[in-house]
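worker-03 picked up job from queue 'complexes'. Input manifest follows; two sequence lines, order preserved.
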Amino acid sequence: MVINQSLVGAVAAARDAGASVGRILGARHGIDGVLSDDWIDLRRVTPERLETVAATPSAALGSCRHKPTEEDCARILEALLRRKVGLFLYIGGNDSADAARIVAAHAAKAGAPLRVVHVPKTIDCDLLENDHTPGYGSAARFVACALRGDDLDNRALGGVKIDIVMGRDAGFLTAASALARTGRDSGPHLVYLPERAFSPQKFVSDVKAVYSRLGRCVVAASEGIRDSRGVLVASKFSNERDSHGNLQLSGSGSLGDWLAHLVKEKTGIKRVRADTFGYLQRTFPGMASESDSAEARAVGAEAVRYALARAAAGAPAEAASISIRRRQGRAYAVEFVAVPVEKVAKNTRSMPDAFIAKSGNDVTPAFISWARPLVGPLPPSGLL
Amino acid sequence: MVINQSLVGAVAAARDAGASVGRILGARHGIDGVLSDDWIDLRRVTPERLETVAATPSAALGSCRHKPTEEDCARILEALLRRKVGLFLYIGGNDSADAARIVAAHAAKAGAPLRVVHVPKTIDCDLLENDHTPGYGSAARFVACALRGDDLDNRALGGVKIDIVMGRDAGFLTAASALARTGRDSGPHLVYLPERAFSPQKFVSDVKAVYSRLGRCVVAASEGIRDSRGVLVASKFSNERDSHGNLQLSGSGSLGDWLAHLVKEKTGIKRVRADTFGYLQRTFPGMASESDSAEARAVGAEAVRYALARAAAGAPAEAASISIRRRQGRAYAVEFVAVPVEKVAKNTRSMPDAFIAKSGNDVTPAFISWARPLVGPLPPSGLL
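worker-03 finished. Artifact:
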């Protein structure tokens, strides 16, 4: 929901840099636009328009799911040099960081005058070197709000409700469901993460236990839950893969439906429902968290300032990624640190053990303290 | 999302009535609470607390899906008289109106001193005698926001996106998806309603036509779409029925998954995704539309004032329902009119023909003009 904040932050910083920056170009649909020479002149967009774009969810330049090969990266470099690009910013997750790394390596090999900076963005919050990533706080806010509403519905109607949350390998977004809780016995009562092996038997007995105590049960489960051998539970229902070779998880309700069916069959509870939050988690307008918006803006600006400062100092053009670090201390504050792009490329991080309850079906208070400032205050709930 | 506004409106009006009203009781889980003598003393809830409750989605008193039999209604009357209830308010849709009608009939037959008023509430907007119903504007706001975000996502990534919206028999909520549009070529590009026969062949060719023109397509389809014989398309996948004998439609992603599969198979388009909005549509916190909140509050208050005025005038205790009428004129305004409860019980209304495009896959400008004031302003969208 905040990717355009990073774009606008970068454009504003480039404009502020004065004569040291010439044209400011945006590639339509990421590297596809670079390769097909499809650019927008971002200097021609008014500041007012840019502010509206910044507050709009989903990449205003367009996105692509095309993972560039080594050969593509060589062609990307050619295309950038043809357009006399001196600074190339690439907004995205670890795959984007890796593409940025390869383009930079080609540039270095060719002795080309190109600086490359990766700007982090992923609702999965799974980038190495980062306390959290732009996009996460807002998506987490959506999930927490959704679960709060869903728990109220479940309170009114009873039964079992299962919500499937995005996050293939990392449970951060599913874990954010726990922020919905307003007190004892409020849901989600069970939280299942990709970081812990999912046992259908254990799941059914967990649900039974909550239901027999409260007459109701709200479950948040990650789309990426997997069995003890590491096989995705969702692989039972789908074999479609995206261009990165990953199994398609979102855009289908089958995992939730299967879990609901399992509970019905094994417990005899009549009212069992599942919702799969799907793309709403990352695109819902008006849901951005304040700190997430501000940090996404800052990280885009920082990428430009970092590269210009390095260039002014005549420093070598090593590709960097701007990482978000949390400052020590009681009040929430962050700082931005440029790290070598290799450190965030390819690999990802999972939820730390300290954030996952020993039971394997909940988060810890440490997670709640960590996540709360990222999501911001939620609408109050009044019960009778 | 605004049912508690009606509750709080009624409580406030009863408090304002002074000594003519004694105790103010709320039954937990609707008629289940009446039958099991499970009440909350609403005079003991502070006004501050009531305001928080009013702004909280989902019935704070709890809900039930138990449709009362004639015998139940006789027992409900007994229970109410035992508690010396003189005014019985029943918040809900046409089934609730019918239950209110039956209780009132039993009271009349027994010559019991009970007044019954039905307070309308349904996100389906399908009550007779009403321009629209409390709950609709806020759920419609959620749907419009969701589609606006989804269209931005589809713009960025391409492909086909199918969104399944609540509404078993009436298409009002699915139609609200069209409010998401910001200009030419913005989605939803196709809107399928229960009021028009759904042909899978026509659907596939509609999608193909949009996709070949734009390289993308966003579809909003009602969970209640049905074939030319009136059979629900969703009946292919589910045979679970609720206590009203209705096929379970929500809480499963199978209709969306089937439509997505159909498009993939018949068109060869690779990226086809479906989301089923499910319960979020009616429970998402912080999404209530302003006019919907105000009208829900007013209709609860009006129910109390109407009954007290009739009692003061010594008028007969015929059961009524408070209906919402739209005033003629350019500025949006409503008035509340008490109608005999029989007029809103049992039967429902569908989208008028004037709201449905001749093509059968869209709404008309007349629908947009009608719906816009109910939903209120949406977050702005900035495109590049």
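worker-03 released lock.
Strands of chain B lie at 25-27, 39-41, 87-92, 115-120, 159-165, 190-192, 216-222, 272-276, 320-326, 334-340.
Chain B is about 40% helix and 15% strand.
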